[in-house]
Each structure stands twice: as C-alpha cells, then as structure tokens.
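Supplementary Text 2. Reproducibility record for the structural model of the 87-residue chain.

All settings were left at their defaults, and a single model was retained for analysis rather than an ensemble. We include the record here because the model underlies the residue-level annotations in Supplementary Table 4.
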Amino acid sequence: MSCDRMNINRSWDHIQAKYVGTGHSDMTKYEWASNHHRDSIASHLGHHDMLQFLAVAQGESIGRLRYQLLERMLQPCGPPPEKETDD
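Retained model, structure tokens:
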C-alpha cells in the first residue's frame, strides 16, 4: 500500500516538473488562474473552427478577435495582486 503511494508521489512530481500548468505547492491562486486562462486562450487560437465560432458569436472579424485574444494573454486575469510584506 505504501509502495503505491510512493509511486504516485513520484509520478506527480514528474508531471509537475514536466508541465507548467499543473502547479506546485507554492503557486498562488492568481498564478494558477493565469495559467488556466492562458491555456484556454491558446487552445482557442490554435483551433481555427473555435476561433471562427467565437468571432461569429461576438460579431467580430477573425483577425480582430485573434488580436484581442493575443493581447489578453499578457495579463489574462488583470494586474497581479499586491504582495504582502511581513514588516
């Protein structure tokens, strides 16, 4: 039983090291949400049919929507929150 648990932990560490979006224990909610939004936007940009559907639904041209999505990838969740200092 404990052997299985060790294998799961090792594989989870390997997955976290290999893929950025899986996170780690020190990841903030803002960082996780930003990664999630960036992954979603990249998927929309990569699938032309989805991009075309979104453009028709929003009444925009595909090029303008692509530009808006690329702009949104810079800060998908807005500016980062203020870091608290323990002074």
